[in-house]
Each structure stands twice: as structure tokens, then as C-alpha cells.
Records
---
Amino acid sequence: MEIVKVIPSGYCKGVVNAIRLAKQTRTDNPDEKVYVLGMLVHNSYVSEELSALGIVTLDDSLKSKEELLDEIDEGIIIFTAHGISQKIKDKVIAKGLKYVDASCVDVLKTQNIIKEKLKEGYDVIYFGKKKHPEAEAVISISDHIHLVTNEEDLKDLEIDNDKIFLTNQTTMSYLELKDLIEKVKEKYPDTVVQKEICNATSSRQEAIYKLENCDLLYVVGDVKSNNTNKLVEVGKRHGIKKVLLIQNYKDINDEDLIGTDKVCVTAGASTPPSLIKEVIDYLKEKNI
């Protein structure tokens, strides 16, 4: 059985920077309470690593970020890599809390582009995932930003403005974006388009499309990670017979390896390198 580690895979620069900032915040403030407002990056192992350092992750699917902040009266708040709304930032300041912004530079770049287009009088169609923190931060900017998650959303969309701008969440599938652009252009022919899929996302997706004769693709990552889930979709779209999302080597079912000549391993941009290595090592042991 041939085992191939897909390159690139795993941590991107935004994730590395966010984790570095969180750890540095703890080091610089050993006696203060430190919180992350949401998952710093979408991987539970990273959250556990931060917890071991005394950094509390404030994450509850039944509560908004504002509601989570209501429970905090002291300490330092870390904003996640996915970006944050100005409303939330203002609330943190109003409560007298200190904050550290770990937003990815690519996410901030997209936000700034959108803000400029709004100033120019555009309505913005934003291709993203509903309830994803990156998308939530963007659509909070203005009522003239319209979240579109699929073609069905586009059918229901009515914009009374000749100036329309289309862009996207940084972790979407570039082929899905290509398909959506075509549909948007059919409905609004004069739409101005700027693709904002980050290099980390696109390069990991492109690496999968370059795979040949892959019988089984393991995508290592967290189920909450959008870029990880997109890698699964890309693998299936590429025609790989079996594409499986696993969080670590313990999720590997040995029966899936039966009759497999070539197994490939990739990982989302928020997946720790140690988890990828463990999967590769496990497969090598099985191959002895």
C-alpha cells in the first residue's frame, strides 16, 4: 500500500499566528484571566491545548457572542482568527476589558475590500457559510451585505441597485465559487467580482486535484472546520473512491484499508501537525 502525504496540508499562517498570539498573551499576563471568544481556530485539540495553559474558550452554540460576553467582567478577551464585528469589539471596550485581535490578515483584507465597495455605493453578495464566525463578522458590517450560501439563496435574492459586488468567505471551495459566479452573472450581468479564497485554502484544494490513482483520501481535521469540510467535498468532486474525514488516527477503520493500493492524507488549515504525523505513522505501521 502506497501512503502519500498531500503537500501542502495542515496549519496555515493565520492559524499559526493566532495560536502564537494566544500563547504570548498568557505568557505576558500570567495572573490575569484570559478568554477566547469562540474557538480560536476550528479544532478541538487546539482548544484543549489552550485550556491546559489556563485559557478559557467561550463557545456555546445556544448563546451569541454578546451573551457570552455578558458573563465576563474581568480579564483579557482574544478575538478568533475568523474576524470579529465592530459591535462586539465596542462591547468589549465598553465593559472595560482588554482584548487581543487574532484575526487572520486575509480575513481582514476581505473585510476592508467590502467596506470600500460599500462606500462606493455597492450592494455586496457574500458567498459564505451560514453562522460561520467569519461570515457573521462580515454581514454585521452593513444591511447592504447579502449572505448567499448556495444557488437557492441566490434565486431568492432581490437587489435594487445597479452596483453589485460579489466576493466570498476565505475558506470556500474555488469550484463552488466559480459555479456561483456564473449564476450571479446570469442574474446580475454587471456584477463586479473579486475572488477572496485565501492561498492556504486554494493551495490545499488544488493539491487534491493533482492526486492520481488515489483509492482512499483521509482528511484530518475538525468537523466544525469549514476549510476541512471543503477538502472532503473537493476529494469527492475529484472522483476519489473513498473520502473520509477523521479527527485523529483513532478514527481509522482498518476495514477501509482492505484492497487499498494508494491512500492519501491531507488536513485542514487548523489541524495540528502532530495529528497528521500520527495518522501517517499509524498507516505505516499497518503497512509493515
Note: The domain at 106-193 is CATH 3.40.1010.20 (Cobalt-precorrin-4 Transmethylase; domain 1).
---
Amino acid sequence: MSGAESPTFGVDLGGTNVRCGVVDRDGVVLREVREPTPLGGDAVVATMAGLVRRLAEDFPEAAAVGVGAAGLVDRDGAVQFAPNIQGLRRAPLRRALEAELGVPVVVDNDANAAAWGEVVHGAAKGALYALVITLGTGIGGGIVARGRVIRGAHGFAAEVGHFQIDPDGPVCACGERGHWESYASGTALGRMGREWAAAGKAPGVLARAGGQVDAVTGVFVGDSAQAGEPDGVALLAEYVDYVAIGLAGLANILDPERIVVSGGLVELGDALFAPLRTAFARRVEGPEYRPEIAIVPAQLGEQAGVIGAAARARDLEAGGSGVWVR
């Protein structure tokens, strides 16, 4: 294989882990490795390069690397600001990784990469206008218009987790108060669970955490809701309403035909999506006068970032960059 037919490397740089996979042109992850996310730009580059080299031993024909990084990534592939990765500021990841590996590298925001993965191989395939929203440590977003991902003037578009819904709300990871992700991320669900447990309103959730309030996470809330426990169902319903606030606002502005939701919470299935669709229909402008906007789970799961970044690398290897528009 050669050129666009060769497999490519996809790297998903998140706040918790660095995942690296080698992916074929059909979006199949042939092999994947991962390491915990280190602190600081130099350590991040060393970790990513090490993971690529490990895979390259068995896939020497893969000669381009795509990276999706959680943060503000400019058009030169530098991460200017990453609120959920300590020490990653003004980091020229693309240039550093190319120097380290000696192969072409493209770096973009992780949610943009995941969005492109869903467009090419997943739940957004065939949609001209779509939103891809990732509910994880924070909230990431990708905006698809006319089948292409919009990056904005500086590459920073679709930082959807960071619009303010309450100026007096909780402090976001970026330092501002009341951003959407401080209410509607997976991290926020865990915080809500601990608050409810401390107030004695979530006995089922607390029991799943061994009776320790500090041990409550969003996973326990989701498990409780899936089991039909009243406190878990009620807690998830309140959380889902915050998710719907953001989705409805974005839909009012962008008018997508489809909203794809990704992240670990997608595994909750109908326990998440049924109340989310109801809450969204209650909050979007004129629901009875507009075509229904489908809200669907992502198809690529936790591999969306790796697959999308590898697809970006495939486009780079083919000599193009046409999937991105301002």
C-alpha cells in the first residue's frame, strides 16, 4: 500500500490518557496503545513519539500522523491553551513531533478530530450540517457545515463547552465561571452526584460508591439511573436538562440536521438519550414548527478521536487539507 491507501497513525491527546492507534482507510483500528498523559509539552511530545514508534515497528508502511489535542489548537498545529492538561501552553506540537519522528504530522483540536471521524466513518456520515458533541472530562464540539469541519479564523472554533450559561456558576477548568461544561460535562455529573449524596438525596448512588461521598463519580450516577433507582434517575434528569440547554442554544444558532453525542456517557443508552431528547424538544425554539433534529449516539465510541485524527493524516498524506474550512 502507498499514499492514501496506507494506514496512518491517529493520536488522541486527552486530559487523562494519550491514545495512539494505527488505522486503515476504512476506519478500522488495527492496533492501539496508550499511556497516562504527562505534564508539560516536552513530556507530551516524548510520550506521543514513543507510542507511534511502538506501533511503527509492526506497521512501517504507516508514514503520517494525525493528532487530536484537547485545547485551543491554532492553524500551525500549536496548542495554545489546554485547560484540562496541566503545563500544556503555547506548545508547538506539530513542529516538535515532526522533528522527533521525521514524518508529516497534522494537529487539530480533539473534538474536531472526533467529529471528522464520525463524518467519515460514523454517525455523522452523509450529514451536510451536523454537530458532534463530546461529553467527557470537559465538553468538546465539532461543527460540520456542507460536509466539512469549521475551524474559524484562528482554528479555535467550536469550543462549545466554554460559553457561559451562568456568570455566578461553578468555576470551569479554564478559570471562568458558569461555562456550559461546568454544568454538563462528565466531570460535572460526578460533582452533582457528590452534592446530592452529601445532602442525603442520593442513597442509591452513595451505596454504589461504598458509602463514601468523595468516591461518587458520574459512573455511579449512570449505573444507578440505568438500574431505575429513583435518585439516580432524578439526578441524571437534572444533569440532562443542563446538556439540553447547551444543545438547544447551539441548534438555534447553527440549525444542524443531526446532533451526534459522544463520550463515555453514551454507554447509558436510552437512560441518557430518552430524557435528553425530551428536554431538548422542550428548550429548542419552535419545536412544533421545525423539522426534528435527530440526537443520536456516536458510533465510534472512545476510538473516535484516534480514528478521526488518522483520517486527517490520511488526507495530509494524500496532499490535501480540504476537509477543513474557515
Note: Confidence is low (pLDDT under 50) at residues 320-326.
---
Amino acid sequence: MKNPPPKKSKTQFFCQSCGHQSPKWLGRCPSCGEWNQFVEEEVRLSPSASAAELKFDGAPLAIDDISATEGERELTGIAEMDRVLGGGIVGGSAILVGGEPGIGKSTLLLQMLHNMAATGLKVLYVTGEESAKQIRLRGKRIGASSKNLLILVEVDLENILRHIREIMPAAVVIDSVQTMYSDLLSSAPGSVGQVREASGRLILQSKKMCIPVFLVGHVTKDGSIAGPKVLEHMVDTVLYFEGDSGHAYRIIRSIKNRFGPANEIGVFEMRDDGLREVSNPSAFFLAERPEGAAGSVIVPSIEGTRPILIEIQSLVSPTNLGMPRRTAIGVDPNRVSLLIAVMDKICGLHLGNHDIFLNVAGGIRVGEPAIDLGIVSSLASAFLDRPIDSGTVVFGEIGLTGEVRGISQIEARVKEAARMGFTRSIIPKTQSRDKMPGEGMKIYRISSLRELMAHLF
């Protein structure tokens, strides 16, 4: 009797940008819109690991019978990192860290593990991109030297999981998840299937053993984390590194956090001996502010739970071009165009035949509507060539009819401005109390853009 022919392996096409699955090749991904991203991969027809490894063996429980204690958080020894994580590391949590190449992800995580190892905790740093000697050289540069800090150079997922079970570390860093692979899948490391397999099994192991795991992820050309989008849903916290090589600062921002506030930021300064936390970001961003310059204004912005003073600069110049240039760095360009139209209609400042360049000094990116009043003030100052008083801060949202709308955490913004030595605040009239915090601070409440011009100069 002849043996039956072997079954052909089933394949599917996966988008390498978002992980969208299709039975046939597509030129353009219907999910993320990227072109030429579909790659054929083998689909697993049998379980990749033992049944005991891929399940919790749980049973339904009444919600009243479940213990609700969060437990003590493990401090990283870096105050800015603890702030972003919501007060420290929660046991069994999975944290995804993304950022541009060379921005400092590996350096910061190695510093964090060194601080934890210095307290007597055993920690594990797994790398698939560098050799052990390279990690040692970086450790010397940043002062990381401890017997409790273990380095593992490995890309095989099964070996990594075995070492984690044997060592039982207090924290694990996987640098990076795109380099890890499982022999049970035939696709190449970094593919959607391998990233999903490695991440899922690492996160499951982390939950079962109550060991926090940090997954370092590569980013695509548009700045998002490479691999399937479901990866960001699987983890508990998503952290993004922001900054560029032209500035000394680095910002780590929590995009998602199940154990703390989202959009919280930590500010660091890149030095020769590693990243150093910045405890006073307002002073850091205003250190080189010009005095008496038209087009410059200070706006108190809220990043997570922290008020930070930022400087908005504008340059407005006449142009002979048929299409004036509009450049905005650090803010939404569409929002700037909207505010320019409101200024033209309400304030009579005709900027249609002017080139406009707007920048948030220091390279920081701000997205909240509270900076609307700062953008308009900066543009008006540059257009009229009249500097704004150096002791003034402005903030508020602007509507299409020129009204100034209230925003959140007004008291915290005014208090931060007073702490930094500012003496005047122009704020929305609505949602503001009669008595505001801040000794010696003069408060001007406005309800429309017409009132702004009366108090600005």
C-alpha cells in the first residue's frame, strides 16, 4: 500500500507594515494603505508549543473573590522612567519600547537594569543585534557593572524562554523582538509571523511567572513600531522615544499604559556617559530663549500630568510667489492653517500673501489645543514686528468664530509659570477661578481674539 502524499503547507500573504492577512498577493494594503508590503508566509497548522505552555489553566471566578491588590512596584532607579511607567514596574507587565535607531533605547534600558542590579536584584538583558563585547563596552561607558546584570546573546526563542525559567530574573529586556525567531515557523526573523509568535510567547511567559519584560521594537519610516499592529494591543504599556541627533534632549512618552496615565513623558539629556534625567524640563527648554524678539511667546503645555513651558517661534515675511509657503514644525500644520484663516477673518491680519514659518523651540512636538492662543500670539507678534513682554504666558483653545475656549488644568499651568518667574498670564475667561495660584501673577481673562490684541502688546 502506497503512503499518502505529504500535505502541502498552507501559506498566506501578510502585510509587513500592519500584519493584515490575505489569501492572495495585493499591491496595496487595504488596512494601512502601504504599497508592496505583502510577503508570503507559511501558516502554522499545528500548535507551536506544548499545550501546557500556551494556557493558563484558569477557571471562572466571581469578581468579588478576585484579589485586587496591585502589589508593590519595582523602582527602576530612574525617576523619569518611573514617572512614565506610572510609579514603577508592575510585576508581570509587558512594555514595548520603540524609537528611531541610535536614539538611546538600549542605553536607557541598560542603565535601568544596572540600577536594579545594584539593589541586589538579578536582571537579564537579551540581545540579538550586538555581541557580548559590544554590550560590555557600552556598560563601561555608562558605568554599568554588576554580577547581578546578566547578558545573553541569543535569537532562538526556545533557548531564551528556557534561560528565563532557569534564572527567574526580576526583569527581562529583549533587544530587539524583531531579531527573535522560533524553529517552529519557517518564515524569516522579523516577519509578521515570527514577531507575533515571539511576542505572544514572551508575554505569556511573563504573565505566568510574574516577570516584567521590556520588548524593544524597530520603527518604520513613518515612525510607527514595525510588525503587526496587534503587538501594541498585546502589551500593557507602549513607550515611544522622541528626539533627534540635532538636539541633546530625549523624550520618552507613554502612548498606552494599563497601570498609569497615558501620554506621560520623561525628559532626558544625552551625554557621553549615557542618558541623564532632566528634573526641570521648563528651564531646560527655555535656557536659550531670546530676549525682546518678535514672534516668540511662551505657552504652558500639559504633557501627561506634568506642566511644561515651551517656546513657540514664528517668522512672517512678504512673498512674491503665487503660493506662499507654510511650514510648521512641532505642531499640526492643518491646525496652523485654520488659525491663520481665523486671524484673517476676525482680527483683520491679512497673512495670505506672506510666507509663514512656525517652530516649537527645542524640537518638542505638541498636539493639545491649548497652544492655539500661543500660535496666534506668535504669528501676530511676527507679523506686526512687535515683541511680546518677556514675562507673559498665554494659553487657550480658539474656535472658528474667534472665541477663546476653556481648557483643562488651568491652575497647574499658571502655577508652573509663576514658579519659573513669569508675571502675566492671558487665559480663557471660562473655567477659570477668581483666585488663581501664583504669587505676584497678573491674570488677564479673555473670551475672544479681539480682546487678546488689547492685552498682548
Note: The chain has a mean pLDDT of 86.
